């Protein structure tokens, strides 16, 4: 499992790879990317930024923010070493690339990734979810008698979510292999 700090560093490098940003803008974009389940506080962001500054992956510049405020802003941008680290991280295709904590961030930057690596990550993610699905479905019939209806419903809901993601991943893999874009259907929609 990836450390949350590693995931934040990958996301920051990816966003800064697109354009320089100040801390507030970075936090806002990261929260959009991470989703409502993983809201990022400044208490998590700024230590990660300081670590990345010490590592030489990013640099900071103070800029005047314009007519609306006299307060200067610190803008972060990647260094050559930071760009190289982003490329290195995005080229990894092992288990940490498809685990829950890291997959979404990596997927958000897939356009910066070679097709073979994208395929390995998508296939790894699908395999991991299929294993999880088989395990949960096997336990579902055994434990259903012991659960109240709400616990059973929650477990059924979890199975359906994983089934939808496996289907979505299969479509993405098929589209990658065909050299086309995936269908524009959201993961939860019925085909």
Protein architecture, described:
With 191 residues, the protein is mainly alpha-helical. The protein folds into two domains: 4-109, Winged helix-like DNA-binding domain superfamily/Winged helix DNA-binding domain (Arc Repressor Mutant, subunit A, Orthogonal Bundle); 115-178. The protein has eight helices and three strands. Strand 2 (58-64) and strand 3 form a beta hairpin. Helix 1 (4-18) packs across helix 2, helix 1 packs across helix 3 and helix 1 runs parallel beside helix 6 (100-108). The longest helix has 30 residues, at 149-178. The radius of gyration is 20 Å and the shape is globular. It comes from Nocardioides jejuensis. This is PadR family transcriptional regulator. Keywords: Coiled coil.
Oligomer: single chain
**CATH topological fold name of the largest domain:** Arc Repressor Mutant, subunit A
What spatial order of strands do you see in the largest sheet?
1-3-2
Average pLDDT confidence is: 84
Summarize the structure.
With 191 residues, the chain is mainly α. The chain is built from 8 helices and 3 strands; from the N terminus they run αβααββααααα. It has 2 domains: 106 residues, Winged helix-like DNA-binding domain superfamily/Winged helix DNA-binding domain (Arc Repressor Mutant, subunit A); 64 residues.
Please give the structural blueprint:
Layout: H1 4-18, E1 21-22, H2 23-34, H3 42-55, E2 58-64, E3 72-78, H4 80-91, H5 95-98, H6 100-108, H7 115-143, H8 149-178
Antiparallel strand pairs: 1-3, 2-3
């Amino acid at each position: 499992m990836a450390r949350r700090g590693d995931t934040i560093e990958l996301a920051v490098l990816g966003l800064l790879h697109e354009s320089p940003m100040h801390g507030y803008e970075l936090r806002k974009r990261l929260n959009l990317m991470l989703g409502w389940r993983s809201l990022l506080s400044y208490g998590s962001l700024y230590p990660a930024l300081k670590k990345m500054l010490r590592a030489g992956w990013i640099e900071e510049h103070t800029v005047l923010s314009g007519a609306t405020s006299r307060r200067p802003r610190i803008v972060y941008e990647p260094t050559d070493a930071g760009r190289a680290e982003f490329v290195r991280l995005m080229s990894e295709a092992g288990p940490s690339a498809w685990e829950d904590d890291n997959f979404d961030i990596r997927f958000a930057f897939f356009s910066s990734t070679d097709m073979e690596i994208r395929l390995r990550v998508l296939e790894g993610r699908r395999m991991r979810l299929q294993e999880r699905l088989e395990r949960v479905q096997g336990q579902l019939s055994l434990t259903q008698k012991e659960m109240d209806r709400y616990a059973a419903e929650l477990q059924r809901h979890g199975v359906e979510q994983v089934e939808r993601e496996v289907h979505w991943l299969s479509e993405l893999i098929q589209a990658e292999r065909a050299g086309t874009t995936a269908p524009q259907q959201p993961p939860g929609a019925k085909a």
